[in-house]
Amino acid sequence: MSDILAGLNEQQRQAVTTTEGFIRVIAGAGSGKTRALSHRFAYLVNDIGIMPANILCVTFTNKSANEMKQRIRRLTGDSDTGYISTFHSFCVAVLQEDINTVQYPKNFLVLDNADIDAMLKIIYEERGLTLRHMTFSKARDMIEIRKIFKDPEYYEHMIALPLDKLQQRYLDAVEPDDIIFWGYLYQQKKCFSLDYNDLIKYVLYIFSVNEVIRLKWQKRLEYIMIDEYQDIDELQYRLMKVLCAYHQNLFIVGDPDQTIYTWRGASVWYILNFDKEFSNVRTIMMMTNYRSTPQIVAVANSLIGNNKHRIKKDLLPVLPDDTKVVYHHAKTAEAEAKWIVAEIKQLVANGIKLGDIAILYRAHYISRMLEEVLLKEEVPYKIYSGVQFFNRMEIKDALSYLRLIAYKDDLSFLRIANVPKRNIGERRMKFLQDYAMQNQCSLYSALERTIDSEIFKSTKAQQFVALIERFSAGYQGLPVSELLNAVLDQSGYEVMLRTEGSQERLDNLAELKQSVYEYEISCGEECTLEDYLAHVALLTNTDALSGQNSVKLMTVHTAKGLEFLHVFLCGLAEGVFPSRKTATLEGMEEERRLAFVAFTRAPKALFITDAEGRNFDGSHRYPSRFIFNVDKALLVYTNELDDSLVYETNWNITSSEKMLAAQASGPVFKPGDRIVHSILGSGAVIDIEYDKAAYVIKFDDLGTMRKINFKAKLEAESAF
Ligand code: ATP
Ligand code: MG
């Protein structure tokens, strides 16, 4: 038997060796789906002789893509790993090859949030908007919602309108929303940049208008495999459907009990109806859980058994017995955090590595108290959220140097032209902006063209342009790591940090250099600067998930697909988890699935905790219903719960579940009611279509009415 099949169970072997046609694996948490997927890749390459470049393997995060690349490299011994990536990164690969079909250059720019903010800043300044009109994060949301829901064809304008026409739309706009939206599209086109929302749209568009290109990609991708399929959304689904149409080899794995992104447009419908959407589908089920102890598996089964809308399936444990899951109730958030940290110290005293411990929570704000106590007790920790590594000032600056060399774009120019100080301050920048506006050119070329004028006499603009020109002329063929070293050195950036005594920032730069170096190794010989920049733009905070000597803190969403030997799930209180925003039965079931994802991350030990206190609306905090959802005999309660807490909570459960059950069978709102939708915002119920089980709603921000499913997440407006 092939080595690749050793270490797999019968179903996994079937999944690996059934290479042709449409195959669906529906399997529980920790049952070896991701393992089957990566072994299948290796099997295709090693045993069948398929070229890695003809396989697309889609993972949910960049981190799992990297892990899979490493695994596959180990299994196949080949450095070429084909397309193992997230949907977004795959789209970048398509666009790098074919974006010129829509008259964009191949070295288009991929924007992250910080870049978008920098563009917003330009727009706000030009048009006299302030953060009181709209914060940047609200503006980003507004743009996203507009791109997804209100102006889904926006990209056709971006592609079709020449820059000056786009600029005119921006200048003609009057309402802040319009100014921001058109200003942003204009800024985007100006430097040929795309944000996450654009990537799939552009690819689908190119495929729809250019059959030759579509066929090229369809033919190239002989085998397509997708992990975490239960969380696929409509655009991703459309993309995948186009891609597999030629060879008709599609392999998907997922667990409907782990659908946790419906709030962002994902739908479990796609995995459940896979057999109706495609022909001759073969379905493989796997229920053995290899990850966790029987004690943890039992708790997870007990919890998810409370969901009504699911196909009933229990995970079967195989690992030997270990300790029971512990539940601790604390009087205050501080006491909860102290208890957790004391337990962690105990684990460490017993020889457990800090890197094998994770603390998970429903929402970021819960981490504050934990951080305080961890700091006080001097327990090293790392948060995988909040300010992301790649958004730190020094990292952005360093990357801006690289970007300016490759693209000479305005964003990077604005960021680093005067860092370190070159005496190109506000007045001179304004001069360049005016010149660029009048002459329809970039800021960098404005500087090049006016460099001899009086205004730049007492500046270091000459040296700056010389530096960038020197690197622009010579960077091709140079490893990115060398380029980065050289530019940080010759630009005076590192010297500046050293003079400032910013050791932490220098350390971060060292870490960046290390990550570039690792990237180069991972992608083999052909690693261009442009590849690297596109890669970095798509990284998220979890991608830096290493750190052997610190406790990992993250939200449950972030922990999806991962495992940590010892898991603490904290803040398991009503109003926190389930979130107080949960208003429908569907919503409550998604919260429960999220708790299920949290429980099933732990192979060895699981601790769940909650604390009394107040919610944002002033209500008292009770232990979460999810604790009482678990058979009491399966948990060790560290302290007996005060009856009032249990009583109140039980009351709470029945009343809200009653409300939720009512909602599942019919409408809860009536015409005239004001409601809030988590994505579309506020609106009024106009009518009810019972036959379609839908409300007809006029949203305040939308021109036309929308039909919204009874089951959608709606709340009464006054509840906010
Ligand atoms: P999730 O639903 O959380 O994504 P999953 O189904 O993808 O989980 P994996 O991450 O592939 O599960 O596997 C879970 C754990 O079980 C891993 O540590 C993996 O190495 C181990 N494992 C998977 N299959 C087997 C097997 N046949 N024998 C022994 N261990 C296995
Ligand atoms: Mg997995």
TrEMBL record:
UvrD-like helicase ATP-binding domain residues: 6-293
GO biological process, one term: recombinational repair
Domain UvrD-like helicase C-terminal: 294-561
A Pfam family it matches: UvrD-helicase
Isomerase found in the keyword field: yes
Entry EC no(s): 5.6.2.4
Record-level GO cellular component terms: cytosol; DNA helicase complex
UniProt KW keywords: ATP-binding, DNA-binding, Helicase, Hydrolase, Isomerase, Nucleotide-binding
Recorded superkingdom: Bacteria
Positions contributing to ATP binding: A27, G28, A29, G30, S31, G32, K33, T34
Entries under InterPro entries matching the protein: DExx_box_DNA_helicase_dom_sf (IPR013986), DNA_helicase_UvrD-like_C (IPR014017), DNA_helicase_UvrD/REP (IPR000212), P-loop_NTPase (IPR027417), UvrD-like_ATP-bd (IPR014016)
Catalytic reaction annotation: Couples ATP hydrolysis with the unwinding of duplex DNA by translocating in the 3'-5' direction; ATP + H2O = ADP + phosphate + H(+)
Top EC category: isomerase
A molecular-function term among this protein's GO annotations: DNA binding
Similarity comment: family membership: Belongs to the helicase family. UvrD subfamily.
PANTHER family: ATP-DEPENDENT DNA HELICASE SRS2, UVRD / RECB / PCRA DNA HELICASE FAMILY MEMBER
Official protein name in the record: DNA 3'-5' helicase
Organism: Propionispora vibrioides
